[in-house]
Every structure is written in C-alpha cells, then in structure tokens.
Automatic annotation (TrEMBL):
CDD domains: HAD_sEH-N_like. It comes from Bifidobacterium pullorum subsp. gallinarum. Pfam families: Hydrolase. This is Putative alpha beta hydrolase. The keyword Hydrolase applies. One of its GO terms (molecular function) is hydrolase activity. The keyword Oxidoreductase does not apply. Keywords: Hydrolase.
C-alpha cells in the first residue's frame, strides 16, 4: 500500500464475526434434518434464501416462498431458525476486538460494509460492544444491493466520506475484495488473523 491508511472498512461475517448458522437449530432437530436444511445441493435452500434476506426480503416473505418450495413442515424449521438466529452470532473472530480497539486508539477511522440484515447487525452491536467503534455501516438489506456489485461500494465511499486511496477494505471473499480494488480501494482478503500486522497497518 503506497498511501497511509486513514480508514478501514470491514466486512462482518467471517471477518469481524464468527457466524455459525447451524447453532440456532442444534438441539431443536436431529443432525440429519439440520444437514438437509443447510444442504448446498438444494437450489432453493438456505443459501438461496439467506442471499434474498441480505438483499432485503423480510422474514415473512421468505417463509411464504420457502413453504411453496418445501411445504409447511420444512418451512417450520426456517421459522425456528429465524426465532433463534441471534444464537448464530457465536462471537467475534479471534483478535478482532483487540484490533478494533487498537486501530481506533491510533486514530484510524473504522467502518462496516456487509451483506447482512439490519436485524443481525443491530444484534451483533448489542452483543459485542467493540463493534460500536465502527462509525457507520452500510448494510445490503437496506440498500437492496449485494457485494460485489460496485454500486454498494460507491455508496459506502460517498456515505463515509473516505478517500479510496487511503482506505483499506477487508473481506473474506476474494471477489468482494477485487470489486473494491476496482473502485480504487486498497483490498485485503481476510486470513483469520486479527492484528494490524496482518493487514500491513502501522
């Protein structure tokens, strides 16, 4: 990075947060049912609807559509997931709380840009106070746009008032990082180490 980094924009899931979506259903259903619910082979399974949720679909719309695809009995599994989904926020990723405090103390401004829902973001901030060091977060469900669509990065840059050349974007998905770089941001694929040295920061 040639410029001094003044701002860092973080993704949430699997960067700041240890997100484990199976936890809300554990103890509620047998493992085989949970495996079926999260199966990547189902084109209209959890991943499909999780993406729609992040795009702005509300829970009742998802449940109604899921019931059409899978029937009322299986749709009830999704309802239980929604009722208990806060449990999926298992914690901060190791070292990330310390990193946020360290960067904030050094004067680096902190922000969030996430494919997530407002409900989840609010719950995460309630559970993990270090997230309140983020000055603002652009949430995909509010914008109706998902990373890596360049428009959501443009909105974040404008809303935060950051200089892309002096801003680092951190995400666990290479495609999201490449999109950020395409708009002039510095990009780093998260490797699981919550330290300023891991991001080549001072």
């Amino acid at each position: 990075m040639s410029a001094t980094i003044t701002d860092v924009i973080f993704d949430y899931c699997d960067v700041l947060l240890d997100w484990r979506p199976r936890i809300p259903l554990e103890g509620q259903y047998p493992p085989g049912v949970i495996d079926m619910f999260f199966s990547a082979d189902d084109p209209h399974g959890f991943r499909y609807y999780d993406r729609l949720s992040d795009s702005g679909w509300d829970e009742e719309r998802i449940l109604a559509d899921y019931e059409i695809e899978h029937g009322p009995a299986v749709a009830w599994v999704f309802r239980i997931y929604f009722e208990r989904q806060r449990l999926a926020l298992a914690g901060l990723q190791p070292g990330m709380g310390e990193l946020l405090r360290e960067l904030d103390a050094s004067g680096v401004r902190l922000w969030g840009l996430t494919n997530f829902t407002t409900k989840y973001v609010r719950a995460a901030h309630e559970l993990f106070p270090e997230l309140n060091l983020l000055r603002d977060t652009v949430v995909s469900s509010e914008e109706g746009i998902l990373k890596p669509d360049p428009e959501i990065y443009r909105r974040a840059i404008a809303r935060f008032g950051v200089d892309p050349a002096a801003t680092l974007f951190v995400d666990d998905k290479p495609a999201n990082v490449e999109a950020a770089r395409g708009l002039g941001l510095n990009g780093e694929v998260f490797g699981g180490s919550g330290s300023s040295a891991a991001f080549a920061l001072p």
